[in-house]
Amino acid sequence: MRTTIASVPEAVREIITKNRSIYDCMKMDVINYTALAVKIQPDVERQIGNPVNLNTIVVAIKRYADSFLEKDEIKTESILKNARLSLTDGILNIRFSTNELDANEAASLMNKFSEMDSDYEFFRLADSFRVLTEDLVDVRKLFESFPHEKELFSTGLAKIKIRISQEQNRSDVVSYVAELLHSNGIELENAFFSQDDIVLVLKEEDASKAYEILRTEISR
């Protein structure tokens, strides 16, 4: 089990990376940082779980924009050099609102998950709990006691875990990977930071191709 809480720079990078139009405009340096900060401030605050000063978001955006220039200057070595990959298909992406579960209920639920799948991933976000686990019969049965259980999870997914060195910036890796896969016609469903890994969630049909693209990039 792994837990994560986003920082402001991580939240900013994740929001921008998931919005291809904003991301492309930033890469071309044709976007107003203050206007963008105003636009994404509610999303940043949702992820952080607290009010965030607008200037703090502007600074995070500026630093993210500067990282594009740094990456353009370093073209001979892959950002994914020496990274390690693992792929798991048949994944359920489960979401519980923090209004539906308190901390004790979440802990009890996680203990039940541990009995069924010891390799599940748990992420504590500002407004929800997220669980990535194998699509098992016992897991599905567990949801029968929850109201609106069909709305809790999405299926047909796979996860790719990327382990990088501690010196590498995880947000830079996610933005680089998202751009690399996007250029090959693959879009991420989601991405999470854990203590040791970056966890990418994508459609199961795209998983093998994405894995090979990343594996090739690592060996470049």
Rg over C-alpha atoms, rounded to the nearest angstrom: 18 Å
In helices, the fraction of residues equals 40-55%
* Topology pattern, helix = H, strand = E: HHHHEHEEHEHEEH
Number of strands: 6
pLDDT averaged over residues: 80
Largest beta-sheet characterization: 6 strands, antiparallel
First-residue to last-residue Cα separation: 32 Å
Content-based structural category? alpha+beta
Strand order of the largest sheet: 2-3-1-4-6-5
Global geometry: globular
Unreliably modeled segments: 1-5
Characterize the structure shown.
- By secondary structure, the chain is an alpha+beta fold.
- It has 8 helices and 6 strands; from the N terminus they run H-H-H-H-E-H-E-E-H-E-H-E-E-H.
- Strand 5 and strand 6 form a beta hairpin.
- Helix 3 packs across helix 4.
Quick structural overview:
This protein is α+β, with helices and mostly antiparallel strands. The chain has helices at residues 8-18, 20-27, 33-48, 54-73, 103-116, 137-142, 170-183, 204-218; strands at 84-97, 121-124, 128-134, 153-163, 190-193, 198-203.
Descriptive keywords:
single chain; alpha+beta; globular; 220 residues
Layout of helices and strands, plus pairs?
Layout (H helix, E strand, L loop, with lengths): L7 H11 L1 H8 L5 H16 L5 H20 L10 E14 L5 H14 L4 E4 L3 E7 L2 H6 L10 E11 L6 H14 L6 E4 L4 E6 H15 L2
Antiparallel strand pairs: 1-3, 1-4, 2-3, 4-6, 5-6
